[in-house]
Each structure stands twice: as C-alpha cells, then as structure tokens.
Amino acid sequence: MRIVSLTLLGLAAMLAPAQELIPVDNGPVTKPAPQAVVYNGPRAKVSMYSWSNKYVYRAGDALTLKWTVKTNGDLYPYTTFVYRQNNQTGVKTWLPGNTETPTDINGNTPDALQPAVLTDASKAILIGAGGKFPAITLPTEYGMHTIAVQLRDYTGTRVLKTSYMKIGVVKNATTITGDITADRTLTNDTQWDLKGIVYVKNGATLTVEPGTFVFGQPGTAPPSALIITQTGKIIANGTKSRPIVMTSSQAFGSRIRGDWGGLVMLGKAPINVGGNIAGGATCGTGGCKNEPGTFYIEGLVGNPDSLYGGTDANHNCGSLKYVRVEYAGTILSPNNELNSFTWGGCGKQTVAEHLQAIEGKDDCFEWFGGNNDARWLVGGNCADDYTDYQLGYTGRVQYGLMYQSPDSNGNRGVEGDNSEYDNAAVPFSNPTFYNITYFGSGVPGFDEAAAPGLFVRRGSRGSFNNLAFMNYYSPCISVSDANTQAQADLGNLTMNGILCYNNNIGGKGTNTLTGQILTAYDQAYAQGQKGNGAGKNFLFSDPFITRPFEYSDPDFMGLFGSPLFRAGWISPPDDGFFDQTAKFIGGIGDEDWTEEWTSFLIENDIKP
What residues contact residue 92 under an 8 Å CB cut-off, 6+ apart? Predict the structure, then answer.
C-alpha cells in the first residue's frame, strides 16, 4: 500500500491519528487512538452528504452530484470510494474507471490505496463539469440506482460511513388521476405523477414496486393526495436498497412543506366517534351525518370515499414498508389538514414498517382510531406534531426518531387525545409506545405556543416507555387536563423510562425535575406519586448523542457511556410485536436502522 498526496474537493493528504470521543462530565474530549469510537464501535466523526440534480432520469441523461463535507475535527486518513449501484441487480460500477472492480477515488485498486484526511467542502461538485469525475451518462437499466460516496478505513477494508443518493431511471412519465377501481401496479421503470385526489376503491389493490418514485403535483384544486378507502388496499413494500419515494414534483432546492397532500389509509377498525358529529371532514352546513362508530377523515370532503371506522378490528388497509413521504401535508382550513402519513380506523393486519415523513405541512404520523401497529419511523421537520393519535387509537409503536430544526420548527413530539367530541368516549385511546427519540427545535412551536415534548389530553390513556425528549422550547411533558389526570390517577396513563434534557428553553429551565417539568401535578406524576407509581424512572441528564443537529446528516446514536444504555430500563413486552432486546432509551441502540433508505437532506443545504 502507498500513501501519497491527494487534494480533491475537500480531500487533502495529511497523515494523522484518528480521534476517539471519550465522554466526561463536561462533554467529549479527544485523544489519539486508532479509530473514532462511540457506543457500537468504529464510526466516523465527519459529516458528509451528497445529492444529484434531480430524482428521476431517462436513459442517456447526464447525472451530476454535489457534496458537502464537515470534518468536525476528524483527522483520520480515509480511503474514499464512489460507485453507482443498479439496485435491481446489485451490480456496482466504480468510478473513475466505470468498472465492476473496486477502485478508490483515484482509480487505485485495494493493494495500492490512497488514504487522505478530509477537509471541509460546501456544495462542491464531485460528478459533473468542474468536478473530479465527468457527469454520469445513465445506461438503459430501468429502476432505482444508488450513487454512493463511501469512506473506508486506511486499509480500505472497513466501511465507516456512506452517503447515499437514490435516483430512478425510467422509460417515461405517466399521470395518475381520478379513481382507481381495478387492481393496478406502479412500476419502478416509470415516473408516476399524481394529480388531484386519487381514491383506491371498489375492491382494488394498488401495488407499488420497490424503487418507485411518485410525484405529488402542487397547485391542483383539490391538492394531489393518495387515498386508500375502506374498499381499497395498498401494497407498497420497498426495501432498504429500493425504498418507495412519494415526494414533491418541484425542483430540488425549491420544495416546501405542503407541496402535495400525502398518503391516507382508511379502514373498518373501531373508533370512538358518536353519530352525527359536526366536525372532521368538510361536510357542509348540516354537519357530518355519520353513523356511530364511523367518521369522515379530516382534510377531505365527507362522502363514502372518506369514511373510516367500523367493527372489524383485523381490517387490513394494506402494507407499507420502506416508504418515504416528502413535502406533503396540505392544510385545507384550520384543524382540517392532510398529514404525511394518515391512518383512519386501520386494523391489526395493516403493516407499517420503515417509514419516513420529512418536511410535512401538518403531522408526520397520525392515527385516527383503529389499532394498527407501526415501527421504525423517522419524522423530520413537520410543521405540527410528530406522532399524533386520537379517537380511540389502541395500537403499538416501537422505534422512532423524530426531529425538528429552528428553520423548520414544529409543535409537539407526541400529541395524544381520546376524543375532542367526548373525553369519555370508548374505546379509549390507549396506545403503547416504546423506544422513540424526540428532538425539538429549541424555538417556539410552529403555530401552538404550548408545545411540550409529550402532551396528553382529553382523557387519553396510554403507555409511554423508554422515550427521550430533548431541546423543546416548552416543558418535557404535560398531562394537561382534569380528565386526563383522572386517567393517570387510576393508573391508565403510564410513563416508564423518560429522559428529559434541555427542554423548557423558553423558561430557561435547568436540567432538573422542576426545570424540565413545570406544573405541580406533572412533577408529582414524574415522581411516582400518582396512579400508584404511574410515572417511573424519569431521568434529567445529557444523553451524549453523537451529532443530532447536523440536519442533512444527523447521527442519533449514543456515545459510549451514554445514560441511554444504562442498566434498569424497562424491557418491552413479549407479545409477538415488540423487540424485547430494546432495553435502552430512545429510538436507536447499536444498530442504525435508518441506514441507506432514508434521506435527511435539507433544501437550504442543497439549493444552488
């Protein structure tokens, strides 16, 4: 192996020792060590993200790629690799030689690599005119591809960090409009443009292939949205390498929250709404003439296609796996909005796994009654709440990472209601949450002054366990009203393993019980003095999370010695759904389940 000088768009040749983060009482310090170390072994301290000029291309189009590098004091000499992968076949084409034989960024084979220390770069061209490599002419290989920039150790054997950009190569574009009343498949060799409200109904199943891009068109009246009715179903099962992306049709750098409506799934599982309710959907001057136990989903016109609820607890709304919904969530009128992901009355056979909602105009994830489960959820920079439930939701949720930034602030981490129409309505909302991390923006809520991390009201029940709340302008938790406090006093609202840190920023709260939690009731609850110990194991401590506020390339994993991993946190139940090994606080342990299929890119970071 030879080590020579290299200067390339932020890569500069300097041999130097790596950095090891050692957590101490007053923060991390550095010392020479063989490699960067955090909780789960070697990891890069450097922040790096890359992006192409658009999502979807035709064969023969030229692809360009930019990248940003922030070294964060990382002095490790990396070997850098760049490749394009056809995710249908798995074949990798390595630059610069466009060969299937691995070479580093300078074309050296593994026996003659060129390690180099990174230096900072901002929006630098890596692939394209003026960059290290010429633009890539995309071949006639339809489906999803990945453009990857990979940092390996100085020997080139161990991958320490990879930046992924997912793109599609398609034959043509097809517009979807009107109702889908027969089985239909959206293939990954086509760009699908969603225009207006599209209902899947009359027994039809909409299948979406892995690696498919669906573009919501803004400016339509009504806004574009995909609605799976009670009589329809969706099967959208992506994979880690080929996620399904439902996104804005606007150009990179100009996309905003609410560019399109979002994804709504409606089922026949129980909800707790009475009959003839004047609320919810747009139902006209006479209000909603709904039968008891059914309702019309908010954000839509009240008609049979927007109806949800019933008596079938096992109803199957469909399956979502590895799906991203970006720049969605149209607000039609006050308290009448579409979310990024909406489930209304979906039952136990419904599948929701590995889902990301980013830059939504309203909530990231909202459940209206029903009991469907969900896990591995990522919510970023939504304008309202991040996990919102009401109207009798009784499902289970495990593993989540929710974050907002000062430039894209939101409201609450959890907003939990029983029913705004009747706080005592049954079935009570009674979900079970485990292992979710919530990061606030540090500034006031988007449109609600009182926006605590965990906000439960209107008589809701629930079980909240191994959750972390950080950086909220408002307090950590709020059991907000007499009806909800009565449920807590009865032991029907429990919290076990809650970390609160750097919340109540607006009140300049200290990291203590009284600094993080304000009302006398909430303080007593957190100390186990209500509901026979309904509140247990509250912790007010720095979680030592690696890099949560680098918004285009965050790292949510805890450093070695973080209190997130201390002994004694509650073990999830052995009920066939929960992962019992997650005896830690927050959404991520020693495995980064967000790797590859997610995108954290912020528009300000990638706009020209």
Answer: 83, 84, 85, 100, 102
